[in-house]
Amino acid sequence: QVQLVESGGGLVQAGGSLRLSCAVSGSTFNNHAMAWFRQAPGKAREFVAAIGWTTDSAYSDASVKGRFTIFRDNAKNTLYLQMNSLKPEDTAVYYCAHSRLVIATMNFRDYDYWGQGTQVTVSS
Questions:
Q1: What is the rounded CA–CA span in Å between residue 19 and residue 120?
Q2: Sheet with 18-25, edge to edge strand ranges
């Protein structure tokens, strides 16, 4: 079974940076898009960024555009989210997701495996 394990979350001050990692095992990392979603307490899960098997299809939500960068290391079967200029409203549990598709999408229904989440808390 495919397993995804996130790491790298924590408590940071506003304006700081974090790099989240998602280690994938149990299946080939190639030929599948990957994404990050996040969920704050009492709010719905929302799309953050996604990347296709090739990075030509990578994109991010407007709320993080210019601040977050999604990238992948296929040799290490690892997905990353570099988060810069963090804001308190970025506080959420961040989830790594593995897609059924080869191209990046924002629809959570396209993703068939999920990590357990990693907490990101940004203080003012």
A1: 10
A2: 3-7, 18-25, 78-83, 68-73
